[in-house]
Amino acid sequence: MELRFGRAIAYQFPREDRPQQCWLNLMMRIIAAMVFAGALLVAGCMVPIGNAAQIDQAAAAHLAKDVPLYESPQLTSSNHIKLGSLSVSECDNGVFGGPGREGVVAILRQRAKSIGANGITDLSCGHAATDERSMLGGCYSAMACSATALKVVPPDSNAN
Fold first, then answer.
1. Which residues share a beta bridge with 25?
2. What b/e string do you get for 14-52 counting C-beta neighbours within 10 Å, with b at 16 or more?
């Protein structure tokens, strides 16, 4: 059946073919939406989203020398000053992972150095809880470390 609208001619499917055409259209849209959602999911898993404060291995080794970890028996009340508590949390999900424990400790050492510390103590690390806002940003798992930043006085300068 043909309908004429001015100069254009529109073809109208017979009534018995229309439900099948609508069903086919709906299925194509659903499949396209599923493919799009799948692509977003794969992209989210392949690219770790979150904090991008990664430190390379050479810088991490340098920081480990500049800001070493001190155990409690190494510290006396006269050889250090506590500068404050620090905490770092980094996203570690994705196929390629995140910074891991060593990377988060390197970031912690970097922050300690930035406030004038030359050592850290009381280091503890573990998995951090992710809140709803960070999950919306793509961070489903996180690693957190905390420590106390120290200004350690070298043994030679105690003679003054």
1. none
2. eeeeeeeeeeeeeeeeeeeeeeeeeeeeeeeeeebbbbe
**Structure tokens, 71:** 């155990």
Query: What DSSP letter does each residue of 78-113 carry, written as one string?
Result: TSEEEEEEEEEEEE--STT---HHHHHHHHHHHHHH
Residues 120 and 147: beta-carbon distance below 8 Å: yes
Instruction: Say if residues 11 and 2 touch (Cβ distance below 8 Å).
Output: yes
Report the alpha-carbon distance of residue 144 to residue 98 in Å, rounded: 12
Residue ranges of the chain whose pLDDT lies below 50:
46-52, 95, 159-160
Q: Is the pTM of this model over 0.85?
A: no
Q: Using CB atoms within 10 A of its CB, is residue 86 exposed (0-12), middle (13-18) or buried (19+)?
A: buried
Task: Give 68: exposed, middle or buried? Use CB within 10 Å, 0-12, 13-18, 19+.
Answer: middle
Q: Which of 41, 43, 51, 38 is nearest to 141 (CA)?
A: 51
Query: Is the CB of residue 124 less than 8 Å from the CB of residue 147?
Result: yes
